Fold this sequence. Notes:
Rossmann fold, 8% strand, 4-stranded parallel beta sheet, alpha/beta
Amino acid sequence: xxxxFLIILTIFSIAFLVFGYVHYQHRTAVSPLASxxxxxxxxxxxxxxxxxxxxxxxxxxxxSDLIANWPEEGKAHFISKTMSxxxxxxxxxxxxxxxxxxxxxxxxxxxxxxxxxxxxxxVELFEYDTTSIEFINSSQSxxxxxxxxxxxxxxxxxxxxxxxxxxxxxxxxxxxxxxxNLQAANEEAALILQPTHPIFGATYYPIQVGELxxxxxxxxxxxxxxxxxxxxxxxxxxxxxxxxxxxxxNEKGHEIWADFLTSYFIAE
Length: 268
């Protein structure tokens, strides 16, 4: 009888040890599915962190590509303001040739810029039917500066000056004054010059525009020669791009001007 109880006790002891071992193994083992889920979660976290780390760099690279044609000071200032989450302000200034209220090239350019840069770029149009001398000596130039632009695309009333008998030297002096006032208000601000539209049959006007380009180059001011996109001055086809009086572009003229500037300010 005693031996019988010893046998029973031995069996229970062995069963208890086996149960304990199996229970321990179950608690400490990691199933393949659990390992896969854990690994996937870790991978997702790493990818998310990687995405967060590379997103600013990718975004910065994207806009660096878009502004590839800009003047160097404009590029640096744009990137700086972007990193500070501040909008970069651009003013488009010139004569009634801007067509600002009629869907002209300036309005088309503004729309294209806003689509490309979003809230990073704030664009304002300033259109005046005046000469360069009247502009710089009136509150009009102050109105532009009150906008606090970081970059100004300036059409310095070349055609109006031609009609108003303003000498090229006076036109250039007004540009110097305007640039000086601009940089006094914002030393990092940049100025870009461009002529008014070309017209067929002109003689003195093209000479004045040539002198404007030479002045820009000698003063190290970027100059956008959009005339290269228009028909030649001696080609009667040029009449098809301006209104009957040739003082403003027509729809075709605004389109060709807008396309040229869009390609400059939004590099592909």
